[in-house]
UniProtKB/TrEMBL annotation:
Classification lineage: Bacteria, Pseudomonadati, Bacteroidota, Cytophagia, Cytophagales
Signal peptide: 1-19
Protein name: LPS-assembly protein LptD central domain-containing protein
Source organism of the structure: Pontibacter aquaedesilientis
Keyword flag Transferase: no
InterPro entries assigned: LptD (IPR050218), LptD_2 (IPR045659)
Residues covered by the LPS-assembly protein LptD central domain: 199-714
Amino acid sequence: MIFLLLAQLAMLSAQPAMGQRVRRPSATPKDTVSIIPPQDTLISTVPKGDIETTIKYSARDSIQFEVDRKVVHLYGDAKINYGTMDLTAAYIQINYDLNTLTATTLADSTGKEVGTPVFKDGEESYAAKRIAYNYKTKKGRISEVVTQQGEGYIHSEVVKKNEQNEIFGLHNKYTTCNLEHPHFYISAGKIKAIPNDKIMSGPFNLVIADIPTPLGFLFGLFPTPRNKRSSGVIVPTFGESRARGFYLSNGGYYLALNDYIGTRITGDIYSLGGYKISVDNTYVNRYSYRGNLNISYDYFKNDEADVADPSRSTTNLQGLPPSQRTAFVTWSHSPVQKPGRGRLTANVRAGSSQHNRVNFESPNQYLAPTFNSTITYQKNIQNTPFSYTATLSQGQNNGGRLSDGSPVPTIMNFVLPDLNFAMTQMSIYEIFSKNVPTGKWYENFTIGYNVRARNEVSNSVAARRLSNIPTLNESRGDTFALNLDNLDRLWRNGRKSADHNFQIGLGNYKVLRFFNLTPSVNYRESWFDNKLTYTFNPDSQAVQVDTAKFGRVYEYSAGASLNTTVYGTVLFRKGKKVEAIRHVMRPSIGYQYRPDFGDQDRFGFYQTTQTGIDTLTNQQIFQTLPRFSGNVPAAGMSSGLSMRIDNQVQMKVRSRSDSAATATEKVSLIDNLGVSTFYNFALDSLQLSPINLNMNTRLLKLFDINVNSTFDPYQLSPDGTRRINRYMLEGDGFKLARLTNANLSVRANFNPEARASNTPPPTNLPGMLNPNDQFLPDYVDFNIPWTLSVDYTIFYTGATSPLNPSSLTQNIGVQGTVNFTEKWKFGYMAGYDFSNKNISNASLDIYRDLHCWEMSIGWRPFGLMRGYNVTINARSALLRDLRLTRNRSGMNFR
């Protein structure tokens, strides 16, 4: 249709427009008009009809009209543009008598063919030596053409095109390589291409580097959809597993249900028995939400473990469980935040405990002790300070084995629901008065509130016992199955609670011009569905525990803090590289008071009861026990001072990057150096808490240093088993405190580009993953020539007793990448444990860019996933199954 419009326009444009330059050279026939200004361009418009937009055409050499033959010639860089269509060639001819359009190359002065015709219409592109098209019948013939269809290219000797825009090719090469002479291609005698839909071929075989291979089939089908999804077959991958034998994996069908939902149905089948079925649904609603729901069912068959000892359910050599059926559900949902609307988010991972053990894809997944699920709805009520959140959560263990080989019981914990209602902190004056604030001191008071109610249920029945105390009807912990028959038991086994928190602000005040005084008050109250009462039974010499239906605890505290900022600056003479050093010190001191909530007569949160009789002295034994199973306030009064000093040191130096004499820059010597402790006046001994010291800084824009340490100001007893009420200063020598634990971390990033952005080096090179997954990384950046980072850590723990002496552990790690050439990239990682004197982990990754192919090599010499992987595959996602993989890691090899 487009070529028909071009021909019609050419007919309308045959007569020169007013003011148009016309030249009649003597070399042309007298019935021919030739227009040959340099880079002549004609723009023509016509009244509304078949042509609805402006058509532009130009030629570098000349544009000629043969009126008697009704032919238009465009010579030299001929171009035609109409809407989204572009046609370029060395020569273009429009014959509106025969209704044809022809585009060809021309020979230059050396005889070389130049100006290959290129046709583009939207996303479609054609390149050919000769194009002949009848715009009336809408049929055409193209010789030596290269057609782009989706991600692929079709090289054809001859192509015919019908009125439905379908392409029929003879002697074809189909490839995803964009070179004129492709590295590989699928050779087929006949091909039919339906644009934006699919490519079909007869018998074909694969050709690599012009060498035919026997790989092929009786027919081929390659989907090439653009701007839309389409349903189709998913080709499985094959391999071999040490536990399951030979297999076909991830084969199935993809259903493009509509523009918003796509479903992927795949399955695995294994030669040693067993299978796996997975249904994966992805949904997207632009500007509203997106999510994914995956349901997987797996039959794992392990005859070795079944025969070994089925009664104990022991595992085989690989640590795998016996034959079993497992299921797993994952669901993720994330909305787009919109003002005034609620937000529903979900992250669900639930199913059989052993599922991840037999289908793990990484060491972290295999070793993870639990997996959890949450579904949350949150909403802020517009034009109010109120908001609420409702959450459903679930957690369960990830399987495993006990020391006797029996499976770990599956424990499921639920919170159904977790409700939170909150009011943001507001001024009390704003709440209770509508007058204009006057600046009074009490107008700075603020109050905030939130309440959290939870209903926690579990299939784990807690043991009816007290620590080291005999109780009546003592029992062991147990679990029960989750099914419809046990729903009532599950509900009765739950625990309900509600926590109320009040945030009270008393303002901030200036004291003596330079100090900031901030008083504070805190109050918390909790409600529980049980309250315990203990009674000693002398007949059974055990404690009887009675449970009430409701209990209430509360706690409150008050305090005030005083802080200021002190600046100190040292100036140097002009002309020096260092102009000044500034020290910023932020000391703060605070007082905190909290009553003794262990006072039984006043609060009743604890109960002192007889728990037994000493058989040697025949005296009664009493213990103080909490009366609630939830968050009970700690016993003991707190009345003391908290002290902290933070320091920062900066240096002002002349800038190297700026030639101006006055240009300077700041260099941080110490980002933060903090010391803190607490002194409790309410204690009768050991009133001073351990002293915490921490420091972090960045030196030379290269080294990141972090130090955390704890010092004890008190001495140890002569036997070294306990602290005594005697300061270290009172001992021999001058010792302020003794170091109890410390850790030092030093990280150096030597890559200049990464140091400039303060980001760690990329770690996206190939890894030893599940062999069913795509090994190749999503992206490898060859523009970064190299990266190198070094991590060094030290952990020190002081002696706590003669049986627990001090210990020191040191680790060093190195990781990075390097480009040996423009196409070769190496990634490496290694760690060394100085304490155990061994290599803790190591890996080597190699990536090779082969233009339309890529190769990755990964080697892990240690750990659960030790082994190697070599993968060579086509880069195009369209031919992702065209790959060769050799893998030996963990359970699998192929």
